[in-house]
Every structure is written in structure tokens, then in C-alpha cells.
Amino acid sequence: MTPTSTQFRHLTTLISLLCALTFVACGDGTGQDIPSEQLPISTGPEIPAEDLCGQEYSVCGYVHVPSNFEGTVKSIAVALYREVPPRGSPDVLITQIDSPSMFSGELYPIRAYPFLDTGEYKLYIIVYMEGGGSARPANEIDYTGYIPESFIFDGQPIEFGEITLERASGW
After folding, report:
1. Domain of 102?
2. For position 95, which CATH number holds?
3. CA atoms lying within 13 Å on the CB side of residue 117
4. How do the pLDDT tens digits run along the chain, 171 residues long?
5. How far apart are CA 110 and CA 153, in angstroms?
């Protein structure tokens, strides 16, 4: 039995609608269209307790890991720069987390304490991946994210909110 032209047209329309609905439902694949309050929060053993946040000399917030995040993480550098985009090594390194339990489509907590340096800086996250960079991120392999506003580090607790990761570029 051969489909008629009307049946073929209906089938084509149905397939087109299904494709369109799939695209709309899935978004752009980055996971950045999912509200943060709906994302799971990583609970890896390397993550310090939440109760240190809010204390003097603490720096806390979250890294939004996109759903298209792939590869094996070597380390996370929580860095400070006086100017963004960075032109080299960080002005100050808050902490480096080796072998973090970071996965796609989640919020990864950053909790550093005590952080004793002072000054005005921009907060930058660098996620170094297997096969990527070590002192500088490797374009299209490693991930970076930052907050464009400066923070005054003076001993008061810093709650930076959320930084969304993207593939490194421009390094």
C-alpha cells in the first residue's frame, strides 16, 4: 500500500511539529535555561561545610555547570583579577580544588575560608579539564566564568551568588 499525497503531507507536518517541540523543550542544550533553584547541588566530599559561609574572611557562591559540560575535571581555580578579560596569571588565587566532583547540569558550591588578602578584584572561575591547560585555560577545552562587578575584599564575608561556566575562548 502506497501512502497518498495527503497522508504524506500529514506525516511530514507531524514530523516537523515533533522536531519543533523537541527543540523548544530541550532549549539550547547548555542547561542555562533551567532555573538555578531547580538544579541539583553537588555534595562532593571535597566541598567544605556550608556553615563557614557568612563568617568573616569567607568567600562563597556557586558555579553553574552547563548541561553540555563534558570531559574529566582536573581542578578548579578560584581566582581574582584586577581587570577582565585577564591578561595572564591571576593577581590572587583564592583556592584551587583538585579532582572536584563536578558534573553537568548542577550547581557546584565554592566555599573558601579563611581568605585573608585584601583589595578590589573581579572573581573568576577556571575549570581545568584533562587535555586542557594548566597555568592558563586552553580554548575550547577548559571552562571559565566570572562576575563582571568588582568585590572589595576586606575581611567581610563575600557571597558572590552564581557564576555560569562557558567553554574557554580568547586565551
Report:
1. 36-167
2. 2.60.40
3. 14
4. 555 544 434 333 333 333 333 333 344 444 455 667 789 999 999 999 999 999 999 999 999 999 999 999 999 999 999 988 887 889 999 999 999 999 999 999 999 999 999 999 999 999 999 999 988 999 999 999 999 999 999 999 999 999 999 999 988
5. 16
